[in-house]
Amino acid sequence: MRQAEQIFQLGEQLPAVVRDAVGMPTMRLIVGIADELPELAVRSLMQPVMLEPHLRLLCLVDEFEDLLGDLALHRLDVVLADRAAPPNPNLKVYSHSLGSSPLAWYAPASLFAAARQDFPQSLAKVPVLLPTAHAAVRARLDQWFERESIKPHVIGEFEDSALLKTFGAAGMGVFPMASLVHEDLTTRYGVKRLGDCEGVEEHFFAIGASRKVLHPLVQKLFSTRG
Length: 226
What we know:
38% of the residues lie in helices and 29% in strands. The chain is of the alpha/beta class. The chain folds into two domains: 1-99 and 204-223, Periplasmic binding protein-like II (D-Maltodextrin-Binding Protein, domain 2, 3-Layer(aba) Sandwich), CATH 3.40.190; 100-201, Periplasmic binding protein-like II (D-Maltodextrin-Binding Protein, domain 2). It is elongated, with a radius of gyration of 20 Å. It comes from Comamonas testosteroni.
């Protein structure tokens, strides 16, 4: 019976994959993006497939747990997140590391001089913006503050990394961000790098669903490692 179910599921998956990959003028890829990931990092992670001919890309941003549920139900082709999928026998998914990036601290021009003086101890005095606890990197940041004996002057916490960056660039406070996006961050948003968040990294994962037929662009994404 189990084999018959697998054959039936395979039969359901084949038409869509073959149609998208061969018979259709476009190849659709539906990507779920965890809302804590910086969008500039997402663009870098998606680079291996962005220039694929005839690509039709659909990106959906949501919370990590909701994305895993949609992936398990085959509503998504792949999920990009800052953590691997947790062990769960009911979720037939698997995780692939796309690498990691050291974290650094950035400041708007209005706060740079004050924050640069006696950095990183200055983070106890200048306004600080942080990701909320739902981001995997937040626990690592809290541990870093403890190691450095810093009680940060936190005035804002954001679930959405885009909002964190936007409010920081607008002058509300200094903030941490993956060094992976340094060039775009400093060029497009006019912030300056204060220094490293030594020993703290943000990790990136692509999570796929267990299928007999894997989307060819997901295969291409999984073949890369940051």
